Amino acid sequence: MKAHPKMKWIHMPITLELDNTDVVQALTQQVASRFSWPTTVAEIKGVIQCIQRVQMHKIEREANRVVHVLAQMAISTRSCGEWRLCTPHQL
């Protein structure tokens, strides 16, 4: 698989904190997933394989506040953004 162009920016281990048990299982199991978005799951697995070290952890939804704020920002501004080594001012 060809590495995504932004993979060159990743030089350290990645920890994914997910609040959905089904998503964690779909991404960590080697067998075919019965998840409702098989193409998306396969694409994410492909990207994960290009990263040196990835850890996935199931967390409680309440602990996912930052992700929720970023998702709301993306929805309201309809644009993308990247923050390296800092966070947006709204956080």
Class by alpha and beta content: alpha+beta
Question: Taking Cα atoms only, what radius of gyration do you get, to the nearest Å?
Answer: 15 Å
Task: Encode the helix/strand succession as letters.
Answer: EHHEH
Calculate the terminal CA-CA distance, rounded to whole Å.
35 Å
Mean pLDDT: 76
Main sheet strand line-up: 1-2
**Strand runs, count:** 2
Q: How many distinct helices?
A: 3
Main sheet specs: 2 strands, parallel
Q: Could you say which overall geometry the principal axes of the C-alpha atoms support?
A: globular
Q: Which key features would you list for this structure?
A:
single chain, 3 helices, alpha+beta, globular, two-stranded parallel ribbon, 91 residues
Task: Characterize the structure shown.
The model has no long low-confidence stretch (mean pLDDT 76). The protein contains 3 helices and 2 strands, in the order E-H-H-E-H. The longest helix is centred in the middle third of the chain and has 13 residues, at 38-50. A two-stranded parallel sheet has the order 1-2. With 91 residues, it is α+β, with helices and mostly antiparallel strands. The protein has helices at residues 21-28, 38-50, 65-77, and strands at residues 14-18, 54-58. It is globular and about 40 Å long. It starts with 13 loop residues before the first strand and ends in a 14-residue tail after the last helix.
